[in-house]
TrEMBL record:
Residues 10-235 form the POPDC1-3 domain. Coiled coil: none annotated. The keyword Methyltransferase does not apply. It comes from Photinus pyralis (Common eastern firefly). This is POPDC1-3 domain-containing protein. Belongs to the popeye family.
Length: 239
């Protein structure tokens, strides 16, 4: 080990740029979620410049090889993080549902997508029946209408319509927290071609046990839906 007797001139600008990106990466605070992605991106850029410096300026095959390997590893990690942080893609119907009912309550797209992943989208053609009074079990599912219109009747008497972004069976869901033998007291029929999002009770309750805040939001939306249905029914009967 000897001290430097003579200092060489400054290294190539590629080397300087690489160290600039390294320094910037290590200075990023970790107080926000995407900090790890930004860190990896800057480190990847640093190794890209180091690879160029090793191959163009000093022509060292070992440095070129090692830096190229580190570029590949960090670039792969950066791509995986980018994929993880991309906003979830949703269909037009689900996007409209999210924007109208869940985003105002500050539910993130990520949590909304986790919620709808537990459900199925089901089509009803005009005249198809969703539930039959005194025949269909009332404690098995929860559905929300995404497209179309449903008619609710009891003893062939029209009660009200279910429109887009309204729950189909919110009263039944709320009345049957435990498994029971209760049946629908109304018949629900498709007034036109319709699409609804359907959760099975067992899967949804299991999912919500691990998402208490999402459960509170869903309970509020269901409660509001029931209130609207009761108000509409009272208006219809009094009219």
């Amino acid at each position: 080990w000897t001290s430097c007797k003579e200092w060489s001139s400054a290294q190539h600008s590629l080397f300087q740029a690489a160290n600039f990106f390294f320094a910037a990466g290590f200075l990023i605070p970790n107080r926000f979620k995407q900090s790890v992605l930004l860190f990896r991106s800057l480190i990847t850029l640093g190794y890209i410049f180091l690879t160029g410096w090793a191959g163009v300026d000093i022509c060292a095959p070992d440095l070129l090889l090692w830096n190229a390997i580190l570029v590949i590893l960090n670039l792969t990690h950066t791509c995986l993080l980018t994929w993880r942080f991309l906003p979830p893609t949703l269909s037009i119907e689900l996007t409209e549902l999210y924007l109208k009912m869940f985003k105002p309550l500050r539910v993130s797209k990520k949590h909304f997508k986790e919620l709808v992943r537990e459900a199925r989208m089901i089509n009803l053609e005009h005249g198809d029946i969703y539930a039959v009074e005194d025949a269909s079990p009332a404690d098995e599912r929860l559905s929300i209408l995404l497209k179309g219109r449903l008619r609710v009747t009891c003893d062939d008497t029209h009660l009200h319509f279910i429109n887009v972004h309204q729950f189909v069976d919110s009263p039944e869901w709320e009345a049957n927290h435990e498994q029971s033998d209760d049946l629908f007291q109304v018949t629900v029929t498709a007034e036109e071609d319709s699409v609804y999002l359907c959760w099975s009770r067992m899967k949804l309750e299991r999912f919500l046990r691990h998402r208490p805040l999402l459960k509170i939001v869903l309970d509020c939306i269901i409660g509001k839906d029931i209130t609207y249905k009761l108000y509409s029914l009272n208006e219809h009967l009094s009219g």
